[in-house]
Every structure is written in structure tokens, then in C-alpha cells.
Design brief:
single chain; mainly alpha; 0% strand
């Protein structure tokens, strides 16, 4: 869960972690300094602060420069996930929930009267996306043998 004070729309964002994301999170926990209360601590002050959004943007810029690819930002990753989920047939309202769009963007009935959390649908959407992503970053063994 991401508390509302850390989200753009100010609302708590509850999102399940798929196995691949959970594995990366476990690696981050293991790599975090023992005395830090943060999984992703600030490099300058790991005991008192978490990494900032600006640090993520700078780190991504370094990777982009190192790989000599077109400029890409963290928001581009978010846009890619939304676009690919649409291509995979994930309904708009589920994509909006995964991306934590404001409830007002879903209409008054949804924003005010529908309190269903769509946890199962979000989990299924993320599992679908994870399978697609895994196919890109972990090609099937058969393809590697050719």
C-alpha cells in the first residue's frame, strides 16, 4: 500500500505485487542498509530519508545516457504500462485503478457510490502484464537455444 500522502491524488493506493515484483522487492530489502527503516533509502541519509522521486528521475537519466537510447522518464514507464494493458484487453476502469487515477476521472457514480476495491481485477491485470513483461525480458529457453 502507498499512503495517500505519497500519491499524486492524495488517496491510499492498494496494489498487489506479482511474483516478479515481489522478488525484486525482496532483493531491495536485502540490499537496504541494516539500520535504515526504508526499503529504498536516500543515498545521502539512509537512516532518515527515503529515495526521492527526483533521485529516481536522475538515476533513470543516467541509465538512458549509458544505454545511448532516446530520452525516457519514469512517467514514460507508467504510460507504457497503461498502453500495453490496453493492448492486452484490460478494461479501462481496471487500468485506471492500477495507475491510481483520481476517482473523479471515472465519473460521479464510481467516485461516490462504488466502494468496491477491485483487488481481484487489479491482481489479474498485473499478472497479465507480468506475463507479457516476462516474455520480453526473459525469452523462452527454446528461443535461446536456436
Amino acid at each position: 500500500m502507498i499512503p495517500g500522502e505519497r500519491t499524486k491524488n492524495g488517496l491510499l493506493h492498494r496494489l498487489p505485487l506479482c511474483p516478479m515484483a515481489a522478488e525484486e522487492f525482496k532483493k531491495a530489502v536485502a540490499a537496504s542498509p541494516a539500520k535504515s527503516p526504508f526499503v529504498f533509502p536516500s543515498a545521502e541519509n539512509p537512516i532518515r530519508a527515503a529515495v526521492t522521486p527526483m533521485a529516481i528521475t536522475r538515476a533513470m537519466a543516467r541509465v538512458v545516457a549509458e544505454l545511448k537510447i532516446a530520452k525516457v522518464s519514469p512517467h514514460d514507464l507508467r504510460r507504457t504500462v497503461g498502453t500495453e494493458m490496453a493492448r492486452l484487453g484490460i478494461p479501462l476502469h481496471v487500468r485506471s485503478l492500477v495507475l491510481n487515477h483520481s476517482p473523479q476521472s471515472r465519473g460521479i457514480t464510481e467516485a461516490v457510490y462504488n466502494r468496491y476495491a477491485y483487488d481481484r481485477e487489479k491482481r489479474e491485470a498485473l499478472a497479465t502484464w507480468e506475463a507479457e513483461l516476462a516474455a520480453v525480458i526473459r525469452p523462452p529457453q527454446q528461443a535461446l537455444a536456436s
